[in-house]
């Protein structure tokens, strides 16, 4: 029986494992974590760290009738290419995969080819002065960005808004880098998109074009993405064209490519390009829902040295238009795209810091395809306001013929989730007080950011039997505040009604203190405050 080797046994690799099996292949899977969620789904599992490319190659050489090496949603496309080159299998070459795995090398390729991306400098662990010493700032205006040169999921990535934030940002970035190296770069202002593509026989086919929803500076937390993105044809074609130029500059020729790219006032600018299919539920979930195409299977066929026939038969041409900054640059590939006739939305839900004492999850709604809580969302689990994209509490994914319906279903599902927190937890108490670290000014943010002066106008008592919704102060009933939504898409009125349903009976409470908790942490912190009052 022919075999496929898949790097990674996490949830993001489930579509690859299933696709390989559906194509009739025996699945060999490697991962450093022998407790990863998809270990039991592999025909054969081997515990190997994904960065140990020589060890993976040695294991691969023992696999009978191995026809392809593959990954999706991991940062180890270079390991895939290394093993594939050793065994004469189809993939991007190892140099190209390395270019697409290390952000410093990647930026150098972009710069050499004239592909628009932010100016940058490299800072290694040994370059960072001792704590307390003066640190030299880069020649960028605030804010700028610091990130590890070789990690994903937003780990160690943040915006730097002042000199006080720079040292800890560098320290965090290099500590999250496998090579102990960070990249410091200009901040790009503009909407951000995730774009997947498959490179095959000189063609470049876009297989997913989503708008990313990024919030909560100084971190870059993706609270969701929506597919398809809505933008002008000019911007659409420019973004795809510049992505293709970037992929060509890295040397990607056979396999997947994934871009994080912004449309700035100066046109498209590439954040990064990886030589793999995207994680974050895009390549394995939202694109297949929106397009009715198993993208992972098509990518796997390329790795198997076969024609991705569904891809080839369904793709439509894209006009090459790289914009003014890249005018005159030769078209790097023949450009195509797989149209999305449907829509899919992914939304994350988050929690304030604390210890989980109760979890109320909603019933599955119309258009909801997947409801994916993380393991931490369980009794006794520790939750936190996310500083990267692996600290979110879970994800909801929807599909509909109508884009607005897909978005509404995802966001209303998130708004129905409630995580109750254990009273007396220091992390929750610090959040209630609005405590921020010196290098994280105004983080975590408040659910409903309001002028501090409103608290001077909130007096009196919410009496026993009075609803919290009816106690909303007049000073908060203004257009400025009525249109605010909390992290989970609830307005003030909706959030207060939710508190009334969760806590239908309560003692008299100080109105000012209650609304301080409510505005700081919406439903979750309001219930926490009431639970604390009840226990006094």
Descriptive account of the structure:
It is a single chain. The model has no long low-confidence stretch (mean pLDDT 95). Strand 10 (203-215) and strand 11 (221-227) form a beta hairpin. The N and C termini lie far apart (67 Å). The protein has 536 residues and is of the alpha+beta class. It contains 15 helices and 23 strands. Helix 14 (492-502) packs parallel to helix 15. Strands 9, 10, 11, 12, 13, 14, 15, 16, 18 and 20 form a ten-stranded mixed β-sheet that branches. The chain has helices spanning 14-22, 53-60, 77-87, 94-99, 103-113, 163-175, 233-250, 282-291, 295-303, 309-314, 403-415, 426-433, 479-482, 492-502, 511-534, and strands at 3-7, 26-31, 44-47, 66-70, 120-124, 144-148, 158-160, 181-186, 192-200, 203-215, 221-227, 255-264, 267-274, 316-317, 334-337, 343-349, 354-360, 368-373, 382-383, 394-400, 418-421, 461-462, 509-510. The longest helix has 24 residues, at 511-534. 30% of the residues lie in helices and 24% in strands.
Annotation keywords:
four-stranded parallel sheet; ten-stranded mixed sheet; 23 strands; globular; alpha+beta; 30% helix; 536 residues
């Amino acid at each position: 029986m022919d075999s496929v080797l898949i790097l990674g046994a996490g949830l993001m690799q489930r579509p690859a494992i299933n696709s390989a099996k559906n194509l009739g292949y025996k699945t060999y899977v490697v991962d450093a974590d022998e407790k990863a969620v998809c270990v039991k789904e592999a025909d054969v599992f081997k515990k190997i760290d994904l960065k140990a490319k020589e060890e993976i190659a040695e294991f691969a050489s023992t696999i009978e009738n191995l026809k392809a090496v593959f990954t999706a949603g991991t940062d180890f496309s270079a390991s895939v290419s290394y093993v594939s080159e050793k065994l004469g299998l189809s993939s991007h070459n190892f140099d190209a995969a390395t270019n697409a795995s290390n952000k410093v090398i990647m930026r150098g390729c972009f710069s050499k080819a004239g592909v628009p991306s932010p100016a940058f400098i490299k800072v290694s662990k040994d370059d960072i002065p001792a704590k307390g010493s003066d640190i030299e700032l880069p020649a960028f205006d605030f804010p700028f960005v610091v990130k590890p040169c070789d990690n994903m999921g937003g780990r160690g990535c943040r915006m730097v808004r002042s000199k006080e934030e720079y040292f800890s940002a560098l320290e965090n970035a290099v500590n999250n880098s496998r090579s102990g190296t960070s990249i410091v770069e200009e901040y790009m202002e503009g909407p951000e998109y995730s774009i997947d593509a498959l490179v095959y026989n000189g063609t470049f086919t876009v297989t997913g074009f989503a708008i990313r929803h990024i919030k909560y500076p100084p971190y870059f937390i993706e609270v969701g993405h929506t597919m398809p993105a809505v933008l002008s044809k000019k911007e659409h074609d420019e973004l795809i064209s510049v992505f293709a130029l970037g992929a060509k500059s890295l040397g990607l020729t056979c396999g997947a490519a994934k871009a994080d790219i912004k449309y700035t006032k100066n046109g498209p600018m590439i954040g990064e390009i990886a030589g793999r299919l995207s994680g974050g539920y895009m390549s394995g979930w939202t694109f297949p829902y929106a397009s009715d195409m198993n993208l992972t299977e098509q990518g796997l066929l390329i790795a198997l040295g076969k024609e991705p026939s569904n891809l080839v038969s369904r793709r439509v041409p894209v006009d090459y238009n790289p914009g003014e900054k890249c005018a005159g640059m030769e078209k790097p590939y023949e450009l195509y795209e797989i149209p999305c006739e449907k829509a899919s939305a992914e939304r994350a839900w988050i929690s304030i810091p604390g210890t989980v004492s109760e979890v109320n999850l909603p019933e599955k709604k119309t258009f909801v395809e997947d409801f994916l809580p993380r393991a931490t969302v369980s009794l006794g689990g520790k939750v936190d306001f996310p500083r990267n994209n692996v600290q979110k509490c879970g994800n909801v994914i929807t599909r509909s013929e109508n884009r607005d319906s897909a978005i509404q279903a995802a966001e209303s599902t998130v708004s129905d989730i409630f995580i109750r927190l254990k009273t007396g937890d220091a992390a929750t108490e610090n959040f209630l007080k609005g405590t921020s670290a010196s290098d994280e000014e105004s983080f975590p943010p408040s659910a409903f950011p309001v002028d501090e002066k409103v608290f001077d106008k909130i007096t009196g008592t919410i009496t026993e039997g009075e609803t919290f919704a009816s106690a909303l102060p007049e000073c908060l009933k203004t257009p400025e505040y009525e249109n605010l939504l909390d992290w989970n898409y609830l307005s003030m009125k909706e959030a207060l009604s939710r508190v009334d349903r969760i806590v239908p009976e309560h003692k008299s409470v100080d109105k000012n203190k209650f609304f301080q908790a409510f505005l700081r942490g919406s439903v979750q912190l309001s219930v926490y405050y009431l639970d604390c009052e009840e226990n006094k």
